[in-house]
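Before relying on records like the one below, remember that each one covers exactly one chain. Contacts with other chains, cofactors or solvent are not represented anywhere in the record.
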Amino acid sequence: MVKVSSMDIISILRRFEIAGEDNAPRHVEQVKITNTTPLSTLVSFRFMRHNYYILFDDEALDDPEYVLEHVRMIDENVEGETLPNPQDHRTEYALPFKGKDVYVFITKSAKRRLDSELADRHPGTSRSTWQKHIKAGHISVNGEVQLSPKVNITDSDSIAIDTPDAIDFTGEELPIIYLDDNVIVINKPIGILTHAKGALNEEFTVGEFFRRYCDYNADTNRPGIVHRLDRDTSGIMIGARNEATATMLQKQFADRKTKKTYMAVTVGTPKNDKARIDLPIGRNPSAPSTFRVDAKGKSAITNYTVLDANDKLALIELRPHTGRTHQLRVHMSYLGTPILGDRVYGKEADRLYLHALSLEITIPISDRRTFEAPLPPEFKAAI
């Protein structure tokens, strides 16, 4: 194997008129030396934001295809070109250096989207999170802030990441209904997310509040979370303070061993004062973030009772037997009586009039409990 120093690389680059007298060995980075054959040495390195290979080989016979074959022994998908020798016109590519013929190959990278490149370089963070960082102005390319995840870059571009410090939510509080060594129960207000949607968390969530109390999932964006309520839904939520409790609670939700009661104000009154809605729910293909009654969807069962009504609105008790996303909202909308304030399946109001009133569940150790969150006064006031 030929011994090659960073000074040797700079000297070769100067002879190929790539480096100047102001360049120094410190400008050569990520040097890797490989013997591609017993008589050939290939050096890969990075110089001034470009990736290069130098081949030391006396049998290449000035053939650029031969050079490319050796480079592809290291990177089979590489694209680029062998650079011409500007010093000696007796050869087109080869240049003598310390008794060996040397060839310089420069890679040419295909352009890629900025968000995809960041996700590949940092696999622990999702592409959607990088998109949020880009749009927030946290990413610079070649010294310029980029605000579009779609901007194209190559390997030669320099990417700088300047993410802000985590927001301090210690001053934020949520009403605690019950707390012991295993569980925490709160009355979630409207407008609060259950947990952040990615690593980039810019708002206070139930998960951030649970983080103070829960060891379960403490290193994620979902500490303590074992079930969810929509942002616009208020009411009872339970969190697990340790992994054993989380397993116990999650199994009850999955096996439908919990009993959940909701209160809703609907626009209009259902034809029947009391009924069981057994209608499957599936994702709406024309609006993938929403759901609809769909014969090919998953089973969804809701029992309801009309408690009070006037000529425009009704106060209804809802008891879901299953826990599909948006289940209560979709079912009531399908009956022609959407929940008041439902921006997706009905019409806007001052809030979504859906409240998780109570949750019956077994907590450690084998203690069956029912937790309740008082009905907000605006529900009865609406009727």
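The longest strand covers residues 28-37.
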